Amino acid sequence: MRRPGTTALAPPATVLIGCLWLVVACAVGSPSEPPSIGQASPTPAVSTPRATSASTATASTSATGAATASATAAPTLAPVPPTGGLASPPDGILADAANSVTGNDGSYCWTSASGTACVDFADFGHVPELAELDPSAAGAALTFSTDPSIEFISWKASYGTPDGDLMPLANGGSDYDPDGNATPPAGMTKGWFAGPPTGTWILTIGIHLVDGDDASYGWRMTVP
Amino acid sequence: MIRICGSAFVATVLLALCGGNALASSPTPASGPTWNPNQHVDYRWKAGDEPPAWMKAAINAAAQDSNDSRGAKAAVLSQSDSGSSWIAYSADIPTTWAIGYTVRSIPSNFTMRLRPQGYPLDWGTLRWCQFYDSPPTGCYDAEMIALHEFGHSQTLDHPDDADVDTWTDTVMHWAPKTKSKAGWNQHEFGPCDVARLQIRYDPLTNSTPYSTCLDLDTDMSLSASATSVYSGGSITFTARLRVADDASWPLLASNPLSGRSIVIQRRAVGGTSWANVGSMAVLDDNGRYTRSLTLTDAYDYRASFAAPNNEGLEGTTSPIVRVTVYSSGGECGETKSLIERHGSFYTC
């Protein structure tokens, strides 16, 4: 094991994401910064009801799985409520071009006035009522956010089969260590990434906040 | 635009090709205030929600697992009827899916709740392995889950699975495994849990191994009782080993490192290759090591600490100390001052 560092994606996934980034960036062609895969990004605002609803983003996906965004990426700069005001983690929202779905809550550690509470979940693999989001194609563009919106410093998405180990899919933000010497990084309110390949998966997203608190969310996903 | 996109694509491909093997576990995340060093934290069984005997045994075993494997001055846990912290066997846990729940209010106390055997959750019926004479596949090991909860009481949070290279690097996973998946019954903190406890609490002693989940630079100094001596005279070398001053974690920076293997090496004056002379003995618990040598020729000396494979320290060598050796009766320009400073040694 080595010094803590950035977790690298598997090469194929990184290449795929790189291609997606390239296509999206070149297609948008805007003088403003394009959304960066694996980082906080100015993705379209996503509605956050528990029921499926249309988001403002539109995208088409080629047969090869490379998404071509046709949306104008309007930055979401609404005021962010202070994290400490929530007694428990906010809902986690995952959206593709057509839908946004509130995920099931997973384990978390959350600090409030009464201390830090850690709730430990079993796993998402066997939850019969797991929230489901079915992207239209492999590698479809997905957006993660929370409701209410909070700032997190890192997020990591993983996927796997219900009985198998999870594999890294994408990540963003900084592996900031509150116990170290580093300056706290800027927070983000969204993560933007390319979805998993064809198959039926459990997709999980974990977030970490600047003070060390964490939360996790899960979805079921069938990718054609 | 095309040039920018092309550069980005090339950079991404290079990242994929060059960075694909960069997976490495990080110290388990943690947050909030810590207990005092080695603070004794006693827990009692919550009245009205006492666990059954088999669960009590598992919890007490987990507390001992924490004490035995913490590798740091984290809290020392033990059961006592007068404890200020409490543990309950209760369904009074937020959500319809959780199996364990810990709230820490440091440095006062913590509370822990474990769901009862057979409780219907939204993902199925909870089964604790310790409840059965022959634990079925799919049960949760109560000792490991309790250790996970004690980890929360010690300020540990959850690592992202993407940050964990080997499952057993931590017991603090978002979702623990059931029997008989690998790691389902781990009964000690993983190295990345220990790393975080050491970062937050300091290692137990200066001789305690640093977790292999860390990768700390080290510094070493070397001094000699004299820098010149008559042939056949004796010189005592003293080395001091410590964690580098600029370590990423302030609590670990400059920590003395005792009980390690230090070798003194020499090379001919003007030479380039070093040869081991011998091991240096531990002088004290403050990271100092010593070795006395009888010298007949002039050499450059240094102390060497090779990176051990059982802890997270980088190797280092000290700056060079040159010792000049004079033939008996020869000239010695520093005779007077050396005798004054090192009168007990056989020096010029």
Structure, explained:
The complex is a heterodimer of chains A (224) and B (348). Chain A is mainly β and 224 residues long. Chain A has one domain (11-64, 88-223). Chain A is built from one helix and twelve strands, in the order αββββββββββββ. In chain A, strands 6-5-12-11-8-9 form a six-stranded antiparallel beta sheet, with no helix packed on it. Chain A has a four-stranded antiparallel beta sheet with strand order 4-3-7-10. A two-stranded antiparallel ribbon of chain A has the order 1-2. The longest helix of chain A is centred in the N-terminal third of the chain and has 18 residues, at 11-28. The radius of gyration of chain A is 17 Å and the shape is globular. With 348 residues, chain B is of the alpha+beta class. Chain B folds into two domains: 27-201, Collagenase (Catalytic Domain) (3-Layer(aba) Sandwich), CATH 3.40.390; 218-341, Immunoglobulins (Immunoglobulin-like, Sandwich). Chain B has helices at 2-18, 53-69, 142-153, 191-201, 335-341; strands spanning 40-45, 76-79, 85-89, 98-105, 109-114, 120-121, 124-125, 218-224, 228-230, 233-243, 262-268, 275-282, 288-295, 299-305, 316-317, 321-326. The model of chain B is unreliable at 1-23 and 330-348 (pLDDT under 50). At the A-B interface, α1, β5, β6, β8 and β11 of A face α1, β4, α3 and α4 of B. β6 of chain A pairs antiparallel with β4 (98-105) of chain B, so a sheet runs across the interface.
In short:
By secondary structure, chain A is mainly beta.
Biggest sheet of chain B, in brief?
9 strands, mixed
Fraction of residues in β-strands of chain A: 25-35%
Oligomer: heterodimer
Structural class, from helix and strand content of chain A? mainly beta
Count of separate structural domains of chain B = 2
CATH topology of the largest domain in chain B: Collagenase (Catalytic Domain)
Rg estimate of chain B, integer Å: 28 Å
Pick out the low-confidence regions of chain A: 1-82
Structural class of chain B: alpha+beta
The helical percent of chain A reads under 10%
Number of domains of chain A: 1
First-residue to last-residue Cα separation of chain A: 37 Å
Question: Strands across the major sheet of chain A, in which order?
Answer: 6-5-12-11-8-9
What does the overall shape of chain A look like?
Answer: globular
The helix fraction of chain B, in percent, is 10-25%
Mean of residue pLDDT of chain B?
89
**What sort of overall outline of chain B do the alpha carbons produce when their principal axes are compared?**
elongated
